Automatic annotation (TrEMBL):
Taxonomy, superkingdom: Bacteria
PANTHER family: 3-KETOSTEROID-9-ALPHA-MONOOXYGENASE, OXYGENASE COMPONENT (PTHR21266:SF60), IRON-SULFUR DOMAIN CONTAINING PROTEIN (PTHR21266)
Name of the molecule in the record: Phenylpropionate dioxygenase-like ring-hydroxylating dioxygenase large terminal subunit
Xref: Pfam families: Rieske
Length: 358
């Protein structure tokens, strides 16, 4: 058993640019208003134009570096507070420099503030952050992440929590299959007494891996509720770089799906976002409020654990990853390094079966 394949704390965490990250809930983006966010250490200015399109800019004026959020947005252009420079926010093109005179030869339209592709999906503003020094984004971009849905009518909810750890710790915690009976022990989920051996099959997918369709754990109360429909229940879980965990539960025509992301805010902090949709118990009154309440409790347990882990990590302990329960974490690190370096094979050459107790 390899318990020392790598120190999963390691040196300063490298961040993956050149991909989409959730920056803000779109219900906070109102026409003519601006809000700020921080992704991968990049300060962002976000808003919604008069035509309804959302945008994301680097929250820095290219003239003197003052945050553009200190200025004004009239629904069409962002004006810098310092010298009144105006920028079209979707492309970043400068539209006006008030200090220019008739004898100036500077063409303001050739000046650009940094703007980023920004798309609205599932109530989130997804922002594409290119690699540093790559200039303005051009060419074909990867698809914007979206929560899978399997019927026209469904309910949905979202949760968010900030974590005082780097994105690597957040992600390997997200995919950790063995912590459930301890971190999430509760009458409505599972208990330590319910621990038993699990056998799951995994397979490679592009930039990630899949826990193949399987019957869900019998020691989790929410899954047992689906038994009222009298149909076979299957669960599929995908992890896809840089930070996405998709879970789909099917029970005949009934379904539940979730997309959980762990997004780096800075190299040492991150944020977990969960968006879920379902048509299970669709007509039950207050089902969304009930699901949100228990979901918040569940995510809060993870958040509290990460807060406590951060206290120990301050002392730079040596860390270990074991087989088989930590194998998904090893795959994640291998996938991440291959993406950062642009070289390397997928850590899964084919289907793999893992065993653990939880």
């Amino acid at each position: 058993m390899d318990v020392r394949e790598r120190n999963c704390d390691g040196p300063a965490t490298e961040l993956i640019f050149g991909d989409w990250y959730p920056a803000a809930r779109t219900d906070t983006l109102r026409v003519g208003k601006i809000t700020t966010s921080l992704l991968l250490g990049v300060p962002l200015l976000l808003g919604r134009k008069n035509d309804g399109k959302i945008f994301a800019m680097k929250d820095l004026c290219p003239h003197r570096g003052i945050p553009l959020s200190a200025g004004w947005f009239d629904g069409e252009t962002v004006m810098c507070k310092y010298h009144g420079w105006r920028f079209e926010p979707c492309g970043g093109q400068c539209r006006e420099i008030p200090s220019l005179t008739q004898i100036d030869t500077l063409d303001a339209s050739k000046i650009y503030a940094t703007s980023y592709p920004c798309e609205e999906r599932d109530g989130y503003a997804w922002v594409y952050l290119p690699a540093a020094g790559s200039g303005r984004v051009s060419g074909e971009l990867p698809d914007v992440p979206e929560l899978p849905k399997f019927s026209e009518k469904f309910r949905s909810a979202h949760l968010v929590a900030e974590l005082p750890c780097n994105v690597d710790h957040g992600i390997i915690g997200l995919m950790d299959p063995a912590h459930g009976p301890f971190v999430h022990q509760a009458w409505w989920w599972r208990s330590r007494a319910s621990i038993h051996e699990k056998v799951k099959n995994f397979e490679p997918i592009p930039e990630g891996f899949r826990m193949s369709a399987h019957a869900p754990s019998g020691n989790s109360a929410p899954y047992k509720l689906l038994g009222v429909y009298g149909e076979p229940i299957t669960t599929t879980i995908d992890f896809v770089l840089p930070n996405r965990r998709y879970e789909t539960i099917r029970c005949g025509a009934k379904w539940f799906s979730s997309l959980t992301t762990v997004t780096p805010i800075t190299p040492s902090t991150c944020r977990i976002d969960v968006i879920a949709a379902w048509n299970v118990f669709y007509h039950v009154p207050f089902v969304t409020s009930i699901a949100t309440f228990f979901g918040a409790r569940f995510v809060g347990q993870d958040q509290q654990t990460m807060i406590e882990q951060a206290q120990g990590l301050r002392y730079n302990p040596g860390l270990m990853l074991i087989d088989d329960a930590d194998k998904p974490a090893k795959w994640y690190f291998a996938l991440k390094q291959a993406k950062l370096k642009g070289t390397g094979e997928h850590p899964l050459s084919g289907p793999v079966t893992l065993h653990w107790r939880s």
